[in-house]
Amino acid sequence: MSLAQATGVFEGLLAGLAHAEGEDIVHRDLKPENLLVSRGGQIKIADFGIARASGNVQRSGFHTATGSTVGTPTYMAPEQAMGQAVGPWTDLYAVGIIAFEIFTGRVPFDGDESPMTTMYRHVNEPIPPIASLNPAVPAGISGWVARLLTKDTAQRTSSAAEAWEELEEHVIELFGPALAPAGPADGARRRRCDGWPGHRDAGAARADLLDL
């Protein structure tokens, strides 16, 4: 997937998460299998079966049910693996894993190991910068992904709107402001992608994504 195509995916994904944040909903199981592409080329987030709501999840977070951990270990944030308080930042860790996979062709921790081993590695082992595995990825994009994958929730990107604003800065630097798509400007509104950087027009961009 090209950088331009990946930007389109992140725009739709982060816009959807911004809307969920506005409703105090945390998905808790983001992964490629739960991202759908509409006929119009829009990204749709599916399978909210284990999503949780909180009166003020941004500030206080919440815990999973006593003695249980839910989600997919390959894409699971450290705090979720340990059954600790989760919030929008937890979904953003999964976005970071998805980005890692898009840019490197693999996930950081996977294989024949057990789910418990995978979760242990998410909690304890550092994830290498994607630029070290794929030198074609710009340093700014690699740093953006690294901040999504920070294990300390206090240091991790905290909201979908914040994640998009930071990514948009890199997109503008790489492609120019005229070609940067509109993201979740107010942090709680679903915005449609009207054009992705590096493509002739929006229709061509959607066609490229649908052909993947």
Report on this structure.
Helix 4 packs antiparallel against helix 7 and helix 7 (139-148) runs antiparallel to helix 8. This protein has one domain: Orthogonal Bundle (Transferase(Phosphotransferase), domain 1), CATH 1.10.510.10. With 212 residues, it is mainly alpha-helical. It has nine helices and four strands. The protein is globular. The strands form two sheets. It has a two-stranded antiparallel sheet with strand order 1-4. Strands 2-3 form a two-stranded antiparallel ribbon.
Outline:
The protein is mainly alpha-helical. It has helices at 3-22, 57-60, 78-81, 88-104, 115-124, 130-133, 139-148, 160-175, 202-210; strands at residues 25-26, 35-37, 43-45, 52-53. α1 packs antiparallel against α4 (88-104), α1 (3-22) runs antiparallel to α8 (160-175) and α7 runs antiparallel to α8 (160-175).
Strand content: under 5%
Calculate the mean pLDDT score and round it.
79
Please tell me the total number of domains.
Answer: 1
Which CATH architecture? Orthogonal Bundle
The CATH superfamily turns out to be Transferase(Phosphotransferase) domain 1
Q: Which structural class do the helices and strands define?
A: mainly alpha
Largest sheet: 2 strands, antiparallel
Low confidence ranges: 55-67, 185-212
Say what the CATH topology is: Transferase(Phosphotransferase), domain 1
Oligomer: single chain
In order across it, which strands form the biggest sheet? 1-4
Order of H and E elements = HEEEEHHHHHHHH
At the first level of CATH, the class is Mainly Alpha
Helix run count:
9
In angstroms, what is the radius of gyration? 16 Å
Strand segment tally: 4
What characteristic shape results from the CA principal axes?
globular
What gap, in angstroms, lies between the N and C termini? 8 Å
Helix content: 40-55%
